[in-house]
């Protein structure tokens, strides 16, 4: 199975800052490079955290919420901040002068060899919009964002067709490969042909469905032998 890896879609040229980088310099890095977050690295290039636009905005947000003459946060918000310690963290970031004060740590990371499917799952589970790509020693390799992951759906139909053909596992192939028809249009794969058994057709469809970048798979096979046993549904009363 040919999986698209993080290495293929990530941004490799990444700007980073050090833990002692001043607040204003971090803000300048974000604005100048038109990015929403920047990794923080140590002297060995190992990632120790991430500073986002939101982390920097805590300073203005904190001033508005707690220094305004008339503003009073809702009771629920105040209780949540007290229980979770968020208020303390926000206050720390609002008073922060360096990247070390502002950053979220540990950073959510992923290896370059991981599949884009895994990257999407990690983003969803962690509630983040981007992942820092690191090597085995934790050194910065790149950044992969949600937008990067969407690039796999922009692949040319011819390239996607080649990947579909190559991605069908050997045990799912039938002898006469010339009778297999693989068509791709706008990322939608249509598989047709005359496999010997229904299980072979099902395996081919399953293999294509798991291929990164495929929008949908449609099967139109005429098999000679239906070798898939479908057990009747039974329900036992308690």
Q: Can you describe this structure in just a few lines?
A:
This protein is of the alpha/beta class. 38% of the residues lie in helices and 18% in strands. The radius of gyration is 25 Å and the shape is elongated.
Helix content percent band: 25-40%
| Category by helix and strand content | alpha/beta
Shape: elongated
Please describe the biggest sheet, giving its number of strands, its sense, and whether it closes into a barrel.
3 strands, mixed
How are helices and strands ordered from N to C? HEHEEHHHHEHEEHHEEHE
Describe this structure in words.
With 238 residues, the protein is α/β, with parallel strands linked by helices. The protein has helices at 6-9, 23-32, 53-67, 75-84, 86-94, 99-102, 116-126, 146-150, 157-167, 198-209; strands at residues 17-18, 37-41, 47-52, 109-111, 130-134, 140-145, 181-185, 188-193, 216-221. The strands form three sheets. The protein has a three-stranded mixed β-sheet. Residues 61-71 and 84-91 have low confidence and may be disordered.
What distinguishing features does this structure have?
single chain; 238 residues; alpha/beta; three-stranded mixed sheet; 10 helices; 38% helix
Outline the secondary-structure elements.
Blueprint: H1 6-9, E1 17-18, H2 23-32, E2 37-41, E3 47-52, H3 53-67, H4 75-84, H5 86-94, H6 99-102, E4 109-111, H7 116-126, E5 130-134, E6 140-145, H8 146-150, H9 157-167, E7 181-185, E8 188-193, H10 198-209, E9 216-221
Parallel strand pairs: 1-2, 4-5, 8-9
Antiparallel strand pairs: 2-3, 5-6, 7-8
């Amino acid at each position: 199975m040919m999986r698209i890896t993080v290495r293929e879609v990530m941004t490799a040229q990444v700007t980073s800052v050090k833990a002692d980088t001043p607040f204003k310099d971090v803000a300048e890095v974000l604005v100048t490079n038109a990015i929403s977050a920047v990794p923080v690295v140590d002297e060995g290039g190992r990632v120790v955290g991430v500073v986002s636009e939101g982390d920097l905005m805590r300073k203005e947000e904190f001033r508005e919420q707690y220094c305004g003459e008339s503003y009073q946060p809702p009771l629920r918000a105040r209780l949540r901040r007290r229980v979770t310690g968020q208020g303390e963290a926000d206050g720390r970031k609002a008073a922060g002068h360096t990247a070390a004060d502002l950053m979220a740590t540990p950073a959510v990371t992923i290896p370059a060899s991981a599949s884009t499917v895994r990257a999407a799952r990690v983003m969803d589970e962690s509630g983040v919009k981007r992942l820092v790509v690191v090597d085995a020693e934790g050194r910065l390799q790149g950044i992969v964002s949600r937008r990067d992951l969407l690039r796999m759906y922009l692949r040319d139909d011819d390239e996607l067709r080649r990947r579909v053909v190559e991605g069908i596992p050997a045990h799912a192939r039938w002898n006469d490969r010339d009778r297999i028809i693989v068509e791709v249009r706008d990322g939608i794969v249509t598989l047709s042909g005359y496999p010997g058994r229904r299980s072979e057709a099902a395996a081919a469809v399953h293999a294509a469905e798991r291929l990164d970048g495929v929008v949908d798979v449609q099967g139109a096979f005429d098999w000679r032998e239906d070798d898939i046993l479908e057990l009747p549904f039974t329900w036992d009363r308690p």
